[in-house]
Predict the structure.
Amino acid sequence: MFFITSILSLVLVAPGDLVISEIMYNPDGPTLGDDDCFEWVELCNAGPSTLELEGMMLSDGNNQLFIGPFNLETGSRVVLAADSEDFALAYGDDVPVAEWEGDWTKLSNDGDQVILYSSSGEVLDAVTYSDTWGADPESGSRSDADGRGSSLEKVALTGPNDETNWRPSEDYGCPRNDPEDGRPVCWGTPGVRNSVEAD
Ligand SMILES: [Ca+2]
Ligand SMILES: [Ca+2]
């Protein structure tokens, strides 16, 4: 039975079914903490069927991690966290987190690539982000996702992975303030719909 289920999941998953929907690449802000403890990536099942994530791989081109058993229903999201215990301390225990083995895909604070592979090695999604995404070149202010509390969120889940379709999160659910300008800061929306999501 396990064999049949595995084959079915291999057949059913296709590029676009499972998307990288949110990236916390620089939590080194005034309120969250170290990269090694608080980086995370959210995946969303945008396809028509429940997906088994076991054996899928996330890579930044250097480090690779392999996702453990996790059944992700259509429309649902799951988080891969650099450190699941630290993640739970920050966000609570209610956010679905998948276990993984291997090396955390350390996400550069300047820009990096995040590549998601199926268990059969097919590229399902790939994002090459930059810390310029969400920055304001005119004022020179850096992006809210660049160590100021926000994550980077995908706007249209079926849209392109470029700076027109990724923005800093705007959900000011966190009751803390940026010491630079006093604004409330956001830690993103792990496990739930993105604050800037369009479809
Ligand atoms: Ca980082
Ligand atoms: Ca989200």
Notes: Residues 136 and 142 are 6 Å apart (CA to CA). Residues 6-11 have pLDDT under 50 and may be disordered.
